[in-house]
Design goal:
4 copies of one chain form a homotetramer. The first copy, chain A, is α/β, with parallel strands linked by helices and 371 residues long. Chain A is built from 12 helices and 12 strands. In chain A, a hairpin with a 5-residue loop joins strand 8 and strand 9. In chain A, helix 1 runs antiparallel to helix 6. Strand 11 of chain A pairs antiparallel with strand 12 of chain D.
Amino acid sequence: MSKGTVVLAYSGGLDTSCILVWLKEQGYDVITFLANIGQDEDFEAARKKAESLGAKKVFIEDLRAEFVEDFIWPAVQANAVYEDRYLLGTAVARPCIARRQVEIARSEGAQFVSHGATGKGNDQIRFELTCYALYPEVKAPWSMDANLMHIRWVALSHAPGDLYLMTKNPEDSPNVPDVLELEFRNGVPVKVTNVKEGKSKDSPLDIFSYLNEIGGKHGVGRIDIVENRFIGMKSRGIYETPGGTILLQAHLDMETFTVDKEVRRIKQGLGIKFSELVYNGFWYSPECDFVRFCIAKSQEKVEGKVQLSVFKGQVYILGRESPKSLYNEELVSMDVQGDYNPCDASGFIRINAVRLREHHRLQGFSGSDQV
Amino acid sequence: MSKGTVVLAYSGGLDTSCILVWLKEQGYDVITFLANIGQDEDFEAARKKAESLGAKKVFIEDLRAEFVEDFIWPAVQANAVYEDRYLLGTAVARPCIARRQVEIARSEGAQFVSHGATGKGNDQIRFELTCYALYPEVKAPWSMDANLMHIRWVALSHAPGDLYLMTKNPEDSPNVPDVLELEFRNGVPVKVTNVKEGKSKDSPLDIFSYLNEIGGKHGVGRIDIVENRFIGMKSRGIYETPGGTILLQAHLDMETFTVDKEVRRIKQGLGIKFSELVYNGFWYSPECDFVRFCIAKSQEKVEGKVQLSVFKGQVYILGRESPKSLYNEELVSMDVQGDYNPCDASGFIRINAVRLREHHRLQGFSGSDQV
Amino acid sequence: MSKGTVVLAYSGGLDTSCILVWLKEQGYDVITFLANIGQDEDFEAARKKAESLGAKKVFIEDLRAEFVEDFIWPAVQANAVYEDRYLLGTAVARPCIARRQVEIARSEGAQFVSHGATGKGNDQIRFELTCYALYPEVKAPWSMDANLMHIRWVALSHAPGDLYLMTKNPEDSPNVPDVLELEFRNGVPVKVTNVKEGKSKDSPLDIFSYLNEIGGKHGVGRIDIVENRFIGMKSRGIYETPGGTILLQAHLDMETFTVDKEVRRIKQGLGIKFSELVYNGFWYSPECDFVRFCIAKSQEKVEGKVQLSVFKGQVYILGRESPKSLYNEELVSMDVQGDYNPCDASGFIRINAVRLREHHRLQGFSGSDQV
Amino acid sequence: MSKGTVVLAYSGGLDTSCILVWLKEQGYDVITFLANIGQDEDFEAARKKAESLGAKKVFIEDLRAEFVEDFIWPAVQANAVYEDRYLLGTAVARPCIARRQVEIARSEGAQFVSHGATGKGNDQIRFELTCYALYPEVKAPWSMDANLMHIRWVALSHAPGDLYLMTKNPEDSPNVPDVLELEFRNGVPVKVTNVKEGKSKDSPLDIFSYLNEIGGKHGVGRIDIVENRFIGMKSRGIYETPGGTILLQAHLDMETFTVDKEVRRIKQGLGIKFSELVYNGFWYSPECDFVRFCIAKSQEKVEGKVQLSVFKGQVYILGRESPKSLYNEELVSMDVQGDYNPCDASGFIRINAVRLREHHRLQGFSGSDQV
């Protein structure tokens, strides 16, 4: 008799295959689920393997469009960067995959979900928090044995050669830049054009894929960092985020061009908070909903075009234009005075200095005030 | 009869020469002061020009070492970046120059200081706030006429050709990277070594100059941005910060490697505050003193070596080592369990999920709680 | 010939009467505007005085309802408190008055506005920033002479007797508490009931007036503080905010009862920002619009009833109930285990301790890590 | 044969007595530890009970002075308040007790510590995090059975009558206020004087005990709140903090009087962080060390005397004086102009309005900017 049905996030690799077998041995029915979020994978081979190992049902689904629109775009709006450097690529993938896995579990009447993420990593946390948030009654069976086996394989499967899959080595990248024009509306890209080739893309998935292609070709977005995991350990991470890096630079530029200085400052704090929440697995939480909502509001005027060149691992902003910019050439120009009275600047400075001068006066002060 | 003595921050250029003449015409005695903070300038020509225009006294002083140690190093500790992109090069120079100018004013018995910064820019504010903070009784004479003249010249003096002085165009930069090792103590660099050449530098000024040289050679640190000035206008800025960019990347890496996660998070907020204060001209203020003090405390364990390669406008971190790192290879390794019990992770996740599940439960809840 | 028309914020007192006369002497046509925001004033006497001093037109308008709904309610949602103590009473009144004054100026074709607030206070800033924000072309004529005269009178007009107008001395207040029930929806009060008397109010103005009455009767909301003005000076302020103090306590209670912990934490930061903006006169600014928008979002679930007693200057929360509370008596109760597994708490704690134990391990550590 | 030695935080009550017996049954040697932190307890009775139940050794220690100096004083400096209302009384006691318990465990060679705090409360977390932080190798044995028993007793032991032990009901409190003068140095109280009686105290423990006495006599510091526990649940808390409430009000006043506005603002954020850390049990953590260090720095000028009256549950600030105040009566007075030029205020306001007017201009703007 079955102990119940498990929906397993299945990769086709050794780890999750082992978990599949182990779950069946324990008496569970196993449904495998493999999400296509753009990774380089032989999906048909994975399907056959799952079936051959006894999966009761096999789901292989293309989530790429919703991954870009529902998860990557909000991260772009937020300028999401964890600890000043990590662009959160895998962190935003996890809730996307788990959301669909929970939907399958519900529709298939499965009481359990499982996955191959290990006990010390962030991915286990991200996966399980999403499942609990969206399907509070769910259980996640977990086996020390399976986990330990898995652990050993991970250790063996360390890639001995080049770790980078998406990006060329900048030293081997083209000697001629690509020049792109990225158009934004509401803080998300709506079109990318290769200026020299005249080629353009305008669906979210096409835009993001094209940016990955161009960024990859020029070796953009490689980092080798030490990061602080949610559970408090430091760990080394080697990441490549070619398209994300181009988008971050372009979005930062358009945002600073169009958003009010003080709104941007408050939004910067919310973006840092958003990045921590996403890194820690709290995409589906009241606070992350709230922060995303506020950030989206701040992006209403982030509209316009950014021109940039991509070359040897770098992204160079060349210029920008916007129908909603707060940039006022006349005001900033030194030839035109307009409403701006240089004398006001002196007043502004002297008032700002009142406190500084008082502070100076009190160094060495010996009397006593009473109020 | 003299109206008093003015110490004028003099550059030798058309603007401040004009101010010098105008101040003399108004009846002031003028002492000129020209600080060497590493700019490319013919200091002797400037001296002669000042004398020929009637300066009562001419000070030309090499502030490079104190500029690096007292102003750039604290900015390195802070990872100081304004609005996510600008590395504050000129913003940190201003208080350094004004500090010395005020000392001269005091020792020469001058009641006035003056400068050539314009009414709409940040530099006027930075200059004058520093002067008021350090010499509260000082006056800064300012003339609309002089200002307007100046303005026109500035407009005329726009560089028609290449704007960049310190950095090579990355397209023309060497096809072979330089590999550097930077050693930090207390969050500031104490030594830089060119790994291939074996060459090293260990005084602050030598280290910083060498990083400028290597960064410049590889086209590192060029940005073209729109920024928000203190007074609220947006303006375009084109900056090059070769050495600063290398230091920022290296310091970020060493800091994340050695500083506790939560300390770093709090310090990150202080660093953003520091950057705003410095951008806005408040280097000499009680709050900037306080923030610098706290940031310095956070840097006590930022000690170790970072290896990096500089190539085609980019800085790539290659590795790091530290006697004070919190990185625990055994703990992070998946083969060794040590104190870490995978079962704990499940408890950790389930407790973190308590709130998320309650939140889900309440969507669509219709009863009423009373306490 | 007239120099143009000025709309003067007129109080009927000596200061603004003097400004009225001075403006006429300078050749302006003067329209006076007196807003009723609940202060104790003889409005008809003020009308006659303005007319007798030559006002071309006299506006006296009851803004009480919009003051409560548009300005006080958002402050209640924000738990607005400046520097931990000041409830921003006058700070929220200023934009309300200036908004209407600007509307009058526009509809009457006046190019100028004026007021009696002094040069060192916050009220001048609040008044003028609002006018510039809503009517950028406006001018505000200002006279040193008028100002100085005004200043002297202010000095003379210091109230010699009891400073407090709205609140009884707690020592003389009733020896029996009033017990109120306040009902909230979307974070603002929709009804107040005096539990013993059965009396209730349900329009915003009636609710707020009644809370002022009850609070005043019991001596609630008196403070004597030193505060930091926008321009950097410290000044003493003596305030009484009876209704506002009751609302703050009740709202805090309902908010903590109904809003998710982490949402509340982020909102707390936004509330502090809101308070600073309002204090400094930036009610009408892009950032204050943004912050109000975000705060309003956070209040969607702040719904329910708070019971409280008002007695001898204090507000005591007696209990609360809500249809949207996240309070789960079963979960919190120690008899019922439900989903909560005490073993999870140990895991949660041990994971939180990983970082603390590593930190301890490294005190006195002498090896070197390399990654 | 013994399984090892446990140091048990023992209260003499039913819960911890049960744990003592259970630990012995499991084969542990048990050392009991009872800390006197000012609670009303029959310490000798507890000693006899522990001995009669088989404790191998009994420690009863007076930690009151170190509790006040090492734990309460830093909380006073921080204005520590959790979620705007809770003054963290029990939260600061926990690390004080656990610190000593760990010292005993080390000196007695005990490998284990135990306590009677339950699985859902904050106190278990605070206790265990402190132990792990200070004695990373320690183990904390925990029994579901013991816990469940304990749980039931707790349910039975609910105080049926008045919950408040330290404070009088304000309705029954004296009809005459006490007037106190509190003197601060470095942000902590160094002396309290009862102005009418002339009585004064000047050791930390005496000062705090006296404030508890006076506050209690007048019914100060009772709150009935819902709070968010670390683990995410909301729970009701009823607290009384008479001395702490007086100190919070007095310290807030002295701090605002003496500390620079912007320093105070940054410190306010650090104080909120401190409060969360302490509430969550992270007193002994790198980040709490860091925050305490920074806060202490901000308190260097918090020196002077505050006069206040305590009456019917309220604390009223009457006045303050300080040798280090930034309050400048001349500057703030409207009769004296000094360095302050009213014209500067206009410039200050107009510059602050530049951004607001631009924002207004752009509402409805249709052109396009390009840079």
